[in-house]
Structure formats: C-alpha cells, structure tokens
C-alpha cells in the first residue's frame, strides 16, 4: 500500500465508517474501516484513553513520530485524532492480518523455513531503519508483523505502545496492560543497566522461534515463571532433534539473537547479512504460500475469537483446579529445592517416563518438567539420560568453572528489588527496606564487597553454630543425597553460564516437551477472550459466571469489581481506588508485597546455586587446594555470606509482612508492567504466609548446604 504524502487524511470520526473488528491488543481494538472521503479501506486502532489514564500529549507526540516514519516495512499511521474518550489511529489496512493470526488460523505448527526467512528479513529491514533512527521498537513479535494481500510485510505497533509507557505515568499506565513477557530480553527484565536496541534483537530471535513453532517459547507458562525461566534458563533455541526440518543457518541465526549478553548480539544491520536470509523469497511468494485460501481477515478473527470463547467454556469447570495446580507448580518452580525423600522417590519415578511424554497431558508435562529442572534427584533414581542432563559436566581444568563462577556472580542481581524495580513497580521504600546495605552501584563493587566482607572462618564459625541450631532437623536432608557430594545441579535455577553444554539438553527437552500448539494454555496470544467494550458489546463467557470476571489471561483474571465505575471493562483498575481488585480467592493475598517476596525467593535459589557451584569448584580444584590452601581460601572468599543474607532476607520479609499486615487490606489482583507491549500481570493466589514459610524452609536448606560446603572444605584440607 503506497503512501501519498500530500494526502491529508481526515481527522474526524464522522469521515470514517467502522466495519468489523480485525484485531484486539491489550490496549486497543482494531477495526477495518472506510475512509469515506477517499473511499479507501483503512484500519483504525481505537485506544480508550480513559482506561489508559494516560498522558494525552505524550500519546499525541508518539503518534506524530509514528506518522513521520517512512519505510516500506514499517507501518505508518496516516493520522490520529481523539473521538470522545478514545484515540483513533488511522493506518493502512493490512488485509492478511498479523503473522500470529495467520498461524492460529492455518499454520498452528508454524511456517516453513523460506516463509520464515522472508517474513524475518522484511521485519529485520524495518528494525534496521528503526534502530538507525535511534528508536527501539520494543514490541517485536508475530502479532505485530502484518501482511498485506499482496504479501508485503510491515512491522506494526511502533510508537503507540512505547509511548504508553515512556511518557505516561507508569503508576497509572501499569494498570492498563496485561500480557506476558515471552519476548522480553533478560536485560529488560533485570533493568540493571537499562537496555538498548539489542533488546529488539532478542525479541526478534524469540519471534523467529514463534514463527517456527506457532508459539513463543514458554508461552504456556504464567508470566512470573516466564521471567524466571528467561533469567535462569539457557536461552531458548531451535532444537537439534525436534527442529530437524530447519537448516543449520536458521539455527545459527536464532542462536546469535538469543544470547543473554546484549553486547554479544549482532546489530540488526549485521544480522541482515546473515546467510540465513539468503533463503528469503519475494513477497509474491509469501502471498501465494500463506495467504491463499484464507478467509477475509474479519471473518478469521471472528472464528478465532469464537474458538477461544469455546475453549474457555470447556475449560471453565477445570479452571479453578488447574489454577491451583499451576500455582503449586509455580511455587515449586521458585522454591526449587525438595529434600523430602519420599517426594523425591515419587518424582524420580515419574521422571522415568520422561522420554515418552511428548503426547502426555500438558499439565503433567509441566509438572514433570519442573521436577526435572528444579529438584535434586538421587543419582541412582534417575535414568542415565536424565542424570546426564542434570549434572553440569566438569570442565577440564576447573578454571572455566572459576570463570563461570565469576561471571555468574557478575550476573547475579545482588539487589533483586532494585533490579526488578522497573518491571515490578517496586517502590523506593521497598528497595530500601529490603536491602538497606545494598547500596551497590555496580556489580564489580558487589563482588568486591563480597570479597571483603567474607571470610572463611566466619563461614565456618557460623556453620558450627548452625550445626547446633539445626541438629534437631538433621533428618531433613537425606544423607545419601549429599554424601560424597552427589549434588545434581538443577536446570533453570542455574544461570546459563554455569552450565555445561550437556545441561542445555535438559532445557531443550523442556521445550521439546511443550505441546506445540496449545491455545488453551497459551498465555501469550492477544486473542484470549476479554469482555467487549461497551461500544461493541458481545456477551462474554466470563460475564455470565463469577459475575465479575471480565478478563482472563490464562489463569489470570480481572473482575468487574476491580474496575472503576466508568467501566473500563477489559483491563483497568481504578488506581485511586486503593488499587482494589475483587478477590477471586479467599486468600489474603498481598499483591503489593508478593513480587518482592517472590523475588527474594528467587534470589535465594540463585544463592543456593552459587554454593553448589562452589562446592563443585572446590571438588574439582582439590589438587590446587592441597597445593595452596591459601589460594583456595581466597577463591572461597567469593562465597556470598549466604547465612547472613538469608537472615537479612528473612528479617526483611518479616518487616514487609508486618508492614503489609498494618496496611488496609487490599485484594488479590495486581498488574505488573514490564516492557512496552509485553505486559505482565500477576494475580496472586499465594498468601504471604505460604511464601514466608517457603523462605524459611529454604533458609534451613541453605544452612544444610553450608554445612556440606564446610565439610567439603575441611575434607580437602585434610
Ligand atoms: N493495520 C492493520 N491491519 C490489519 N490488522 C491489524 C492492523 N493493525 C493491527 N491489526 C491486527 O490487530 C491486532 C491487534 O493490534 P494491536 O496493535 O492493538 O495489538 P498487539 O500489538 O497485539 O497488542 P498490544 O496492544 O499489546 O501491543 C494485531 O495483532 C493485528 O492482528
């Protein structure tokens, strides 16, 4: 569709005739429309400004920027204007719709490689342009890659979603958006040092996987878990076995994008030169291959929506239960450690069926995957393959491990709340409360601090004390699991740089075992049913039951009681109404505190992993230790004072809990913003108490580990 620069599109709603709905994002509904004076088909994105509570001038500025864009692969706005409480953004109508919709309608298993290469090349050209002009798109995903009837490809949603976050009041705008962070780069999640255009390259890599499989990696998991998995797991990629149909160059291209260190990712310009894009074809080819035979966009959208609604009805009875199970999974995913022998036995028994699970119930798979990744198994209980997947292979010399350890420490978010502040709206006071001494200005400083603060003797002394304190709990940790240092390092809790290549297999299997197309469990798609806006009211399945559930994103929901009386029916809380959201469970959930608690638990895990790595390192370098006890001691100074940290964390959690208890009770829903266009909503069904208990349990486990560490050190000294 060509732009006629002189053409001034009318800026009044009366000049447009709205037809059917052709898309729905979390922030807007998109309609096919006729621009009456020009007798031209357009698409109009209608954003409800009241719901967004956003800075109108900011949005206007962004839309202006959007209309200055001039590149054949970037969707440019014709114009925009306000109509009542809405902002209308008039755009070219892309009759093929988004790649996501096309996949959902006709290619649930993803596209063939030449199609992917063509789509991605065009998208990448758009990114090169955007980056050259100093912008970050921040919302690269299949849902934003649009195709016209002739096969031309345009990257959409540049500007609008970004402005919603950049210029608006985050505190308010956060209540407007929900979604999942599947496409979000790790550095964006961490927000430690900010992020740049390389974040788009990560999202581009995720989009490549999405186009290849029909869904983004981790899309079946709840947002918080996606965050943890993205941060802790090895990056997703194309699998050697499952993705046999794809070429080596495709796999390499994806791997180049999905590197956790943004500096190591190529620029868009460089990536465009990758030999994978030599497979790209013409846009006529695209039109022929993926658009032929498709029904008109509006119809397709209607069918998809009806399908989603049906699924919701079918799953409704099961939903609460699934929610519960899923929550349990999630808690275990965070806690990650299970020292209960009986539990371990039964879990290990389940894992034996590991290889034949590909057709199994997705919930079961999810649970088993958690086990695979999060639980320590006695080696003898595991089939050899699983054991191999779980054990980090020792390096040749141990120096690699030291390097790993250092880089692992470097990537350790010492100030978890600070690190996730951008993501989770952690208030300054929360950060201060949690980490009064963590005025860490850089990771190097953190490490130095760790080096100076720690001493081996202190660890030993404390360990001795703990021995006494915990003697009554000696049965807590099965001896045979830890004797002879038979630690099996779990999957996702380990930073990826701590893993041997073998470890990656476990993650690959995790992805492998994800059902390829699971609309009913896919939290990432924009098509999940939500209640219609009042202007276009279709009765939603959710309307008729629970009275109040007006939106569901996977297992997350918002109820009508959450909403301001003016009727933001899909996604807004009234921010001034105490953030109140009708509780959908009877749990006394503490949404404001939960992210912090969860974050603490996550850190706890990471610390544990560091200790395990240290143990391994000590084991592997015992020769060196014997030669030079002093050197070993120095290396061991790298150990974070886990027990101290544990106590600190525990004290902070108690503080938080007290603070929470002192404040007026709020209800259980919370929307957590992350990244423009990739929004995260967490509805808590976990009580503070249960998290607190979890933390205490983990603390005990840490103490046990430290004892083992000391035993190990002592043994090597002897
Ligand atoms: N110009 C267009 N022509 C045809 N379809 C469009 C057009 N713009 C958007 N769509 C369709 O509408 C859907 C929703 O668009 P929108 O930009 O609101 O959503 P999104 O990017 O998925 O969500 P979010 O608001 O979270 O960024 C798109 O996924 C696409 O299928």
From TrEMBL:
PANTHER family: PROTEIN KINASE SUPERFAMILY PROTEIN (PTHR48014:SF10), SERINE/THREONINE-PROTEIN KINASE FRAY2 (PTHR48014). Residues 688-715 form a coiled coil. Keywords: ATP-binding, Coiled coil, Nucleotide-binding. It comes from Salix brachista. It comes from the Eukaryota. ATP binds at residue 45. One of its GO terms (molecular function) is protein serine/threonine kinase activator activity. Residues 16-277 form the Protein kinase domain. CDD domains: STKc_OSR1_SPAK. The keyword ATP-binding applies. SUPFAM superfamilies: Protein kinase-like (PK-like). The keyword Repeat does not apply. Belongs to the protein kinase superfamily. STE Ser/Thr protein kinase family. STE20 subfamily. This is Protein kinase domain-containing protein.
């Amino acid at each position: 569709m060509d732009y006629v620069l002189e053409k001034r599109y009318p800026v009044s709603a009366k000049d447009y005739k709205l037809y059917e709905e052709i898309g729905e994002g979390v922030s807007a509904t998109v309609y096919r429309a006729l621009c009456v004076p020009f007798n031209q088909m357009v698409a109009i994105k209608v954003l409800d400004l009241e719901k967004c509570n956003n800075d109108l001038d900011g949005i206007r500025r962004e839309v202006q920027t959007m209309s200055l864009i001039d590149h054949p692969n970037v969707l440019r706005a014709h114009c925009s204007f306000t109509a009542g409480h809405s902002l209308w953004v008039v755009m070219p109508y892309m009759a093929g719709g988004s790649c996501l919709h096309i996949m959902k309608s006709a290619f649930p298993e993803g596209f063939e490689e030449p199609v992917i290469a063509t789509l991605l090349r065009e998208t990448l050209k758009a990114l090169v342009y955007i980056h050259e002009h100093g912008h970050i798109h921040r919302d690269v995903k299949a849902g934003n890659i649009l195709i016209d009837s002739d096969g031309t490809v345009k990257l959409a949603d540049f500007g609008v979603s970004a402005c919603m976050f950049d210029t608006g009041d985050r505190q308010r705008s956060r209540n407007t958006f929900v979604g999942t962070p599947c496409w979000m780069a790790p550095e964006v999640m961490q927000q430690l040092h900010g992020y740049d255009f390389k974040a788009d390259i990560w999202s581009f890599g995720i989009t490549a996987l999405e186009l290849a499989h029909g869904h983004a990696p981790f899309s079946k998991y709840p947002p918080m878990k996606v965050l943890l998995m993205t941060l802790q797991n090895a990056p997703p990629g194309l699998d050697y076995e499952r993705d046999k149909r794809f070429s080596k160059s495709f796999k390499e291209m994806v791997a180049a994008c999905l590197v956790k260190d943004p500096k190591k990712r190529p620029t868009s310009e460089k990536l465009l030169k990758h030999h994978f894009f030599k497979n790209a074809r013409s846009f006529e080819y695209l039109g022929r291959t993926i658009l032929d035979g498709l029904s008109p966009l509006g119809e397709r959208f209607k069918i998809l929506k009806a399908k989603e609604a049906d699924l919701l009805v079918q799953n409704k009875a099961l939903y609460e239960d699934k929610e519960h199970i899923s929550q349990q999974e999630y808690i275990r995913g965070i806690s990650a450690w299970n020292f209960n022998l009986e539990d371990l036995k039964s879990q290990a028994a389940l894992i034996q069926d590991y290889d034949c699970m590909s057709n199994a119930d997705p919930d079961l798979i999810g649970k088993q995957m958690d086990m695979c990744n999060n639980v320590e198994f006695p080696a003898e209980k595991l089939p050899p393959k699983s054991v191999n997947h779980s054990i980090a292979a020792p390096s040749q010399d141990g120096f690699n491990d030291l390097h790993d350890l250092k880089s692992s420490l470097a990537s350790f978010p010492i100030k978890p709340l600070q690190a996730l502040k951008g993501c989770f709206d952690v208030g300054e006071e929360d950060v201060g409360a949690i980490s009064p001494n963590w005025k860490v200005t850089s990771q190097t400083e953190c490490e130095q601090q760790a080096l100076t603060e720690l001493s081996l003797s202190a660890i030993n002394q404390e360990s001795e004390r703990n021995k006494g304190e915990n003697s009554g709990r000696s049965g807590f940790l099965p001896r045979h699991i830890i004797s002879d240092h038979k630690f099996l390092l779990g999957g996702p809790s380990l930073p990826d740089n701590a893993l041997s290549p073998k470890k990656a297999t476990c993650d690959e299997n995790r992805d492998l075992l994800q059902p390829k197309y699971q609309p009913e469990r896919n939290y990432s798609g924009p098509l999940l049913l939500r209640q219609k806006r009042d202007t276009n009211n279709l009765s939603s399945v959710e309307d008729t039951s629970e009275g109040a559930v007006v939106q569901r994103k996977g297992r997350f929901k918002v109820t009508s009681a959450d909403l301001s009386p003016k009727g933001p029916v899909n996604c807004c809380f009234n921010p001034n109404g105490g953030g109140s959201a009708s509780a959908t469970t009877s749990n006394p959930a503490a949404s404001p505190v939960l992210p912090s608690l969860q974050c603490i638990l996550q850190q706890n895990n990471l610390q544990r992993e560091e200790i395990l790595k240290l143990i391994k390192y000590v084991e592997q370098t015992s020769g060196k230790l014997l030669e030079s006890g002093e050197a070993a001691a120095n290396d061991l100074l790298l150990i974070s004072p886990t027990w101290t940290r544990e106590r600190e964390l525990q004290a902070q959690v108690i503080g938080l809990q007290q603070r929470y208890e002192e404040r007026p009770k709020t209800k259980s829903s919370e929307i957590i913003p992350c990244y423009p266009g990739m929004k995260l909503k967490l509805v808590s069904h976990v009580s503070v108490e249960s998290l607190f208990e979890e933390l205490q349990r983990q603390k005990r486990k840490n103490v046990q580990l430290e004892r083992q560490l000391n035993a190990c050190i002592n043994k090597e000294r002897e």
